[in-house]
Design goal:
This protein has one domain (2-415). Helix content is 63%, strand content 3%. It is built from 20 helices and four strands. The strands form two sheets. It has a two-stranded antiparallel ribbon with strand order 1-2. Strands 3-4 form a two-stranded antiparallel ribbon. β3 (194-195) and β4 form a beta hairpin.
């Protein structure tokens, strides 16, 4: 019961040093405030933009409305951005990016390709999220532990309510037993598409939502490695591994499976983070070119779709399309996504992609020494994962990514309360 109370209330009586030490580095009110912000960012709650029947939070692949849904974290980021608008306008890197994306967006609109607005806006999200949270959190201490506490709470609360939903889903005629509940739970692979209430559906349950489990796994591994919140980290690690399989996300499931191999490669090579970034980019670019130049006739329908979209785009590519890639006939005819983030961004914004990923690389490589492993795992899943889905410019993932990297950049070893026991 103490664990559940800790998850629901956010601040355990077992250890209040997460929020402040003897010198009150992080006072109680700031602790609650930041904790609530992190909870909102991590919570998979999506508001439908179709307001014909009021506010709706139950859209997902099995119940789609006329308009898409947005995560509530995006609303929060927009509100915080207003408070830090002056700082954002003074950021030259952001202004250059805004100018490049803005110019290409206008050219795309003139050409009739309106999807560029969505993609361009999505590109801004992780960068703005990073700078916003870097400004918001720069005077606070021990933010990493507050962030991890919020992530722990969101996942465990979902886990607890998933048990409840699976329990009540049993037929009334059957007297529930521990065995029947366990069988039902295993059948649904320790997860459901609901979040807390059955009226709240996870809009991106099958693709982007599982990122939260991958994140929980790599943060928990880092905590256990550094002997921080070990018991809680081990518990969350197990729950996240069990839960991610139910989502059907091959990207994040396989990403978790590959963590031991990636870790061995990291410890063996000991490159700088910039080197790993360029290596992962080289892999993604090489594979993108390969599937764009050769029709592999994949048997898997998902991979075949991505192959065909890339192949048709490159088949129609010309020198003019390198400068103005949106002029490609295939780009103009394709209403939806290319399902390849590198190709998606390039097809709308051309060589702007070079400057954009240069900024992203700087953000990844700017984390503190003790968090480099986390940054390494994140850049792998986001950059290599760009081959099969839109990751960094997806609002739910992008906001979390920018916020997490901001925390890892601000936190230093001297500021943490080492080996806090929860």
């Amino acid at each position: 019961m103490e664990l559940i109370k800790y998850c629901l209330c956010g601040i355990s009586k077992m250890d209040r040093s997460i929020f402040y030490d003897k010198k009150e580095i992080l006072n109680k009110s700031n602790g609650y405030f930041i904790y609530i912000i992190f909870i909102i960012i991590f919570s998979p709650i999506f508001l439908s933009l179709d307001f014909s029947n009021g506010f709706k939070f139950d859209a997902w692949v099995g119940n789609l409305y006329f308009r898409p849904s947005i995560p509530i974290s995006l609303i929060l980021l927009c509100l915080i951005s207003i408070l830090y608008l002056k700082q954002l306008l003074k950021n030259k890197k952001l202004l250059i990016l805004f100018g490049l994306i803005g110019l290409y967006t206008l050219l795309n609109l003139y050409n009739g390709t309106t999807r560029a607005v969505i993609v361009g806006f999505g590109m801004f999200i992780p960068v703005i999220s990073f700078y916003i949270f870097k400004n918001l959190l720069n005077t606070l201490k021990n933010v990493y532990k507050v962030m991890y506490l919020a992530l722990f709470s969101v996942i465990i609360i979902k886990f607890i309510f998933d048990i409840y939903h699976l329990y009540i889903s049993l037929k009334p005629a059957i007297v529930p037993t521990i065995s029947s509940i366990l069988d039902s739970f295993i059948e649904y692979k320790f997860n459901t598409q609901h979040y807390v209430f059955r009226s709240i559906m996870i809009y991106n349950y099958l693709d982007y939502f599982p990122f939260i489990y991958y994140l929980a796994v790599i943060l928990s591994i880092n905590n256990i490695k550094n002997k921080i919140m070990e018991s809680y980290s081990l518990f969350l690690l197990i729950i996240s591994i069990l839960a991610v399989a139910a989502t059907g996300s091959r990207l994040f499931s396989y990403g978790i499976v590959l963590i031991p191999i990636l870790y061995i490669f990291y410890k063996t090579t000991k490159f700088k983070l910039e080197t790993y970034f360029y290596l992962f980019m080289l892999i993604s670019i090489s594979v993108s070119l390969a599937i764009g130049l050769v029709d592999f006739n994949f048997n898997d329908s998902s991979l075949a779709t991505r192959n065909i979209l890339a192949y048709k785009y490159f088949n129609d590519l010309s020198f003019l399309n390198v400068i103005l890639p949106f002029m490609s006939q295939h780009r103009m005819e394709t209403v939806g996504s290319f399902h390849n983030e590198l190709l998606e961004i390039f097809s709308f914004f051309g060589l702007t992609i070079i400057y954009y990923y240069y900024l992203i690389m700087k953000i990844y490589s700017g984390v503190n020494e003790e968090y480099k492993l986390i940054s390494y795992f994140l850049m792998f899943i986001i950059i290599v994962g760009a081959l099969i889905q839109i990751n960094i410019s997806n609002p739910y993932v992008g906001i979390m990514l920018g916020m997490i990297l901001a925390v890892l950049t601000l936190e230093s070893k001297n500021e943490r309360i080492v080996n806090a026991k929860i």
